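Hi everyone,

Forwarding the result from last night's run.
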Amino acid sequence: MGIYAVRYKFARLAFAAVLSIACTAQEALAAQSDDNADAELAARSWLTQMDVGAYDEAWEQATGNIQQRTKQSWTQWMQERRGTLGTLLLRTTVCVRPTKAAGAEPKATYVEIEYDTDFAGLSHLFEYVKTVRGANGSWKVCWYFVRTMGADDLDRCASANDPESR
């Protein structure tokens, strides 16, 4: 086999490898996008329970850090934090991004979602929902908190959603 034939075979192999890597990267991005969408759908469904004051049901549908509290403790805690806010007026997704396990959380696939939320009693609250994909593939909320939104929350989310900052 001549030198040109070897170069040609090498070039074909290199091209195939680059093409394979590009396809794998596209598939990974598509899977991540699907994960983000599925996780946000689960979060919004769970938040619907919270919005109507069904904190017991939200506790039952959750996992992780939320269920480390007793149902009674969780319900009381949410009534103190959410009960005074009034009716939900608007919830805007600020960012959705994959994240890693924190602290003692088990290794799994996590997605965190952050919202700018307006209630009748207070506007521009920062809602944070962390979801985890279970062994059966379904998404559950494993962490939640709500607080007054700061400028750094918006800046962090804006940079997380900016492809050029990655």
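Confidence is low (pLDDT under 50) at residues 13-20, 22-30.

Cheers,
N.
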